[in-house]
Amino acid sequence: MHFEILVEGQTELTALSILMPKIVGDYDVPHTWCIHKHQGIGKLPEDLTAIPNKLDRSLLHNFPSKLRAYSKSMSDNEIIILLLDLDDVADCLAFKNEILSAKDYCFNEPNLLVRFAIEELEAWFLGDINAIKKAFVTSKTKLLNGYTQDSICGTWELLADIVHPGGFAKLNSFGKRSIRILEEKRKWAAKIAPNMNIENNESASFNCFKEGILNSIK
């Protein structure tokens, strides 16, 4: 199976580059994948058949157009995976159905798997406390133990308080959308993901992602 994986940004690309071999085995033995990063989640266009704005490189803005392009030549041995954070969506099912409606405008029925990281990708890291402790020996255990899995609580901010000197307050001083914050998130992914035990993760959204992939190759 070949996986075309669409993600929001560099953090997701970094994490999945490490996690995919853990889930399906080494690259090209026999499965392959390509991970495409974007500039944030963005919004679905009102017209799902519209040509995307070239200046908007967000994931959802470009998704319907990319899905149509993939559908022209996809084989049964290829699948598209759309991975999104679900940090400010009230109705998960309605949002998923809205995304899936983009399939109605495709040339052929594409193989598509939509998965969410709830609340954010950092929830997957917090699902494996041992992986965090191995990556950051000075991590704050009390905060780790007090986390409710996949809760809407400001997930990346909590992880910052656990692993970053000065915590979220220090990072927030650089600005909410600063390059410094994005780079720190990428570093966390690079340090934590190699230590993750994918068979023992408490994040339901990670396990849903993993099982979706494994079911597609059975």
TrEMBL record:
It comes from the Bacteria. This is DUF4276 family protein. It comes from Labilibaculum euxinus.
